[in-house]
Model the fold of this input.
Amino acid sequence: MALWWNLRGTYWYLESNSEYLVNYGWRYRRGMPISSSIAESAVNEVVSLRCAKKRQMRWTDKGAHLLVQVRVAVLNGELKMRERPKPRRFSEDEKRDDRCQRVP
Done:
């Protein structure tokens, strides 16, 4: 029964995520990279340096994870930065209003 349960779970996972799974054989036959170990190693080195306990300013594990999530979303184009709001232009009447004057 456990074997059936595990096979069913595996089948469901593969079926549900088929559009996200990478066909490594296809990539390998075309000379495309099949490993991201170099990039992952570089990221791990940077993150581990910022999370080191001997640093004055260091990241928490949660902070590092959240920062990476935001960075990935930016790189994937899933996170658009807001435009800065334009400063409000006051009319002459509003400029003369006492409420808009600076307090000395």
